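Quick question about two entries, pasted in order.
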Amino acid sequence: MKKTFAVLAGAGLLLATGLFSAPPAQAASCVKVASVIGKNYQRAQDIWRAQGFVVSPARDGMGLDRLAWIDSNWKVISQTPRAGTCLKKYSSVRATIIKYTD
């Protein structure tokens, strides 16, 4: 009888201290995608990675299939998904970029 009481009391203590709590709400499990339009591509990647997203290779906004070797020489003209979209951590995001000289 005493052992049963001790186990129940211990479980109540764990619940009271918050060690066993309800899972976080749905809203807390997603992150709103930041707007990076107009920023240089390197800064855009830094912002998205800090938010916990995976950055997919950028698209060339001129349609020339160029690769961004020096990311800071390019600026973001659009992004997928749109800013403010709520995504789970580790979701993919992508920028469409052009060179500053375009």
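Here is the second entry:
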Amino acid sequence: MIERRTPTTLAAAFQRQAVLTVALCALGAILVVAVVSSASLGGLLLAILLGVLALLRAVLPVRAVGALAVRSRGLDVAVLLLLAISLAVLSSSPNL
């Protein structure tokens, strides 16, 4: 008899939300870098993460991005890119 995994297991949830899980792990690493090294470097890395998430939201189907799909594809990508550009500008500005 073939045993099937139920969709309510923790492993199934991580598989459905793989992009979000990787993004949260990357966010944790970025926070460690920001605390240990510098806040501006952490801000730039966070801006890069937001840019990558915008790219993933633009090219992957809704089923693959999971909870990252909140509104329409165009609006999600525009908001993520706006946040990424704003954060990159602010973190590279001197004396902020």
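Reply: The mean pLDDT is 89. Residues 12-92 form one domain. Hope that helps.
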